[in-house]
Amino acid sequence: MNLVNIRPASVFMAASVAGDPRWARIVARDKSADGELWYSVSSTGVYCRPSCPSRLANPKNVTLHDTIESARSTGFRPCLRCNPDGPTLGSENAVLVARACRIIEESEDEPSLENLAAAVGRSASYFHRIFKASTGLTPKAYSAGHRAKKVRESLETSTSVTEAIYDAGFNSSGRFYEKSNELLGMTPTQYRAGGANEEIKFAVGQSHLGAILVASSTKGVASILLGDDPEELVRDLQDRFPNARLIGMDRDYEALISKVCGFVENPDVGLDLPLDVRGTAFQRRVWQVLQEIPVGERVSYSEIARRIGSPRATRAVAGACAANNIAVAIPCHRVVRNDGALSGYAWGIDRKRALVEREVSQTL
After folding, report:
1. Do 102 and 183 sit in the same domain of this protein?
2. Cα angle value 39/28/130 (rounded, 5°)
3. Whether residue 163 sits in one domain with residue 220
4. What is the pLDDT of residue 341?
5. Does residue 275 lie in a domain region?
6. Is residue 63 part of a domain?
């Protein structure tokens, strides 16, 4: 037997740990990994969370654990510096953000950033950062969105538009009217009437994806819908704008549907259209980022969350993509899972695949 080539087991253990992707997160002291994995250190007899600030352990002394129960089963004690048995920083911040949201929702006037931060016991800059990371919105945008929701609710029950505006916490009707189209997609009076008298022009065309319906308000394109049955698309449009006056068969409008169909067939020609985007502040931020993705590129949901400054809001990003009402012009088909695989699409996964493949082939 050649004893020269025999290595201690610790050498193999160290190589195994060092090559594990979980170890890279520990080396980086990745706070987002807290609550997802733990590690124990035989030389010190403790177990820690990934973000532990203590001196980095030698991999040969480390065992990785996927559950806190597994770490405890070593018989070691919890690290006093990182408190692995306690709540993660992320969960503590989530509690603070939830408390701040309740304060915003229960306040008659919009609370200031400084008052909100003081109420949860954090500095204004730190609170602003964790609030945006958790909700995808700044406290100010969250407050405005909540007040817009209150306006929508009040418009349905109040005796006047002015009463609804003040009930929602706006200090002046002028300030609200400046943002009314952005918040409601129409004037308060139109919203109060259920969108009555709003004119929506539409036309239906055909492409390799099947039927395409394009609909516009006076502000811009409000819907691009895809499907197999043109009549079903028209019924879908009626459901989306139940009180609007739909106008079809407009000869001048046919040019727009031709432009959209031409883009679907040849994505490299580009599609520059005025859009009437109706959604929450968070959704509009996501949709804006989607419009910045170049033809032929694919981006993950988590990358979109990172680009809007809310890396923990991956699920909310997916929800915003699903709520997109304007296919191809707001290209949610370019968003994929982290492993590059295609996921859900409001107009069918086969159409998403066809759109992606055509774009990629034309950019090669």
Report:
1. yes
2. 100
3. no
4. 86
5. no
6. yes
pLDDT tens column, 263-320 = 887 777 677 788 888 777 788 889 989 998 988 899 999 999 888 877 878 888 998 9
The reply to whether 14 and 50 lie within a common domain is yes
The last residue of a domain, from among 130, 157, 192? 192
Q: Which residue is it, tokens 């909310």? A: 316
Task: Indicate if 41 and 129 belong to the same structural domain.
Answer: no
Domain end position, chosen among 58, 78, 98: 78
Question: What is the tens place of the pLDDT at every residue in 136-174?
Answer: 778 888 887 777 777 766 666 656 666 666 666 666 566
The residue assigned the tokens 């997160």 is 25
3-state SS string over the chain?
CCHHHCCCHHHHHHHHHHCCHHHHHHHCCCHHHCCCCEEEECCCCEEECCCCCCCCCCHHHEEEECCHHHHHCCCCEECCCCCCCCCCHHHHHHHHHHHHHHHHHHCCCCCCHHHHHHHHCCCHHHHHHHHHHHHCCCHHHHHHHHHHHHHHHHHCCCCCHHHHHHHCCCCCHHHHHHHHHHHHCCCHHHHHCCCCCCEEEEEEEEECCEEEEEEECCCCEEEEEEECCHHHHHHHHHHHCCCCEEECCCHHHHHHHHHHHHHHHCHHHCCCCCECCCCCHHHHHHHHHHCCCCCCCCEEHHHHHHHCCCCCCHHHHHHHHHCCCECCCCCHHHEECCCCCCCCCCCCHHHHHHHHHHHHHHHC
State which residues form the domain around 73: 3-78
Helix axis angle for 281-290 and 139-155, nearest 10°, is: 120
User: Does residue 252 have a pLDDT over 70?
Assistant: yes
Residues labelled catalytic: 48, 332
CATH assignment at residue 303: 1.10.10.10
Q: How much is the pLDDT for 62?
A: 94
Q: Is 185 in the same domain as 203?
A: no
pLDDT confidence of residue 4: 45
Assess if residue 315 is contained within a domain.
yes
